[in-house]
Design a protein that fits this description.
The structure holds 2 protein chains of 2 kinds. By secondary structure, chain A is mainly beta. Chain A is built from 2 helices and 11 strands; from the N terminus they run H-E-E-E-E-E-E-E-E-E-E-E-H. Classes of the chains: A mainly beta, B alpha+beta. Chains A and B meet through strand 9 and strand 11 of A and helix 4, helix 6, strand 3 and strand 5 of B. Chain B: InterPro entries: Ig-like_fold.
Amino acid sequence: MLLALALPASPLGCTAEDAPAVPTTSTTPAPVPRAHLRGLKGNVQIKRSIADEWSTASDGVPLFENDKVRTEAGAGADLVFSGNGSMVHLGGDSLIGIAETRPRPGRPRTDLTVLRGRIDAELERPSTQSLSVNTPAATIQAGREIVFQ
Amino acid sequence: MKTALLLLAWLSAAPPDTTVVGPQESLREVAERVLGDANATAELRALNSLSSDAVAPGTRLKLPGQERGLALKALETARTLVAQAKGTGVLPEAEARLSEAEVYFRTARYAQASEAANAAGTLVSGGRAPHPSTFSVHVEPDAGTTTVSVTRGPPVRVEAEGVTRPVAPGETVLVEKGRPPVVPATPLAPPQPEQPEQGAVLKRRADAKGHLGPVKLTWAAVTGVERYEVEVARDMQGAAVVTQTATSPELKLPVLPAGRYWWTVRAVGASGRSEPSVVRRFELVPERLKLEVQKGQWQ
């Protein structure tokens, strides 16, 4: 039974650049992109949560939860979050992960995990937007919504 | 299957989080132990319908759930926003809603506390023009040391090890893994060399070994300094031939062979070592003694 449940959720056969495949016969809702990559500069790579390999990212590619993005020194990219339009610029020699949407009891919501390197974030309307960033050492919360959820 | 259903039923019927009052434990001590706040006795009284702080050992007390944490965060943010708006003519209504939220929180009505705190925050921010929020997060490749800098907009909250620190525009906070956020110490400014002047040629008498001296180096004092470290080298990037420390902004060098020397000075204080000063060069040349031989008996 567990296997039967797990199989529809396993998007076998999709490339690293593609969105995770959604079986047409399944009732599982289609995965919603958390963000999109824009303004790529230099070597930017992406690793899907279901993939083992890194592949070169392209402009406009959607990012889903647990996907990772890395940049080489001198490279960069912008992440535009779908939920509220907040934008994060990823600097060179950086590694980030898109956080899970699933809420965890007692833990604040996270949008992004920065494992290495630098991000510059911008919220045009912090009174309505929010962004939560995790690092190995801290949790950073910007905007108001994150607190008032 | 039946066993699973029974287990599910048992789990759903399980009581919420509780704690038992220990021997000789006061309600204040229970609040400190379970909520980390000795002043949260009112919440425990409200939750457990207690008329006073007196509780018998062995009493099982009901504890607040996850909603307390959310209400506390909403309350903390509302307090910050209202406090920040004090100088800008905060709306009395926002202050009233914040007071209301505080009362709700103390009486363990967490949902109402969140709602009132949100309303207070909305009232404060609603009267102000929206300011974009920009900040940067830098994670070192070592052990994840994180630096958060806010450029503009409302404060950003940085949380680590249970400590939350708001970071206002223009501020920077540093977080080392396993430690709470701290404001990094301002680095010491490098000292400014004064004497000898750049390129000065210093004539000194040679000693029996042909070494010349003394040479006194001086520089502008730096505040908050514990000592200065002076390095003297024989060429611009060469290894130091003299390394000495001084507690005042001057140093008398030992005698040296004739030649050119380059020197720098660093300030050292509680916040670490400064960058080295600009490099200064001087040249040591032997002073020629004027010999006057007079005619006489011993000519």
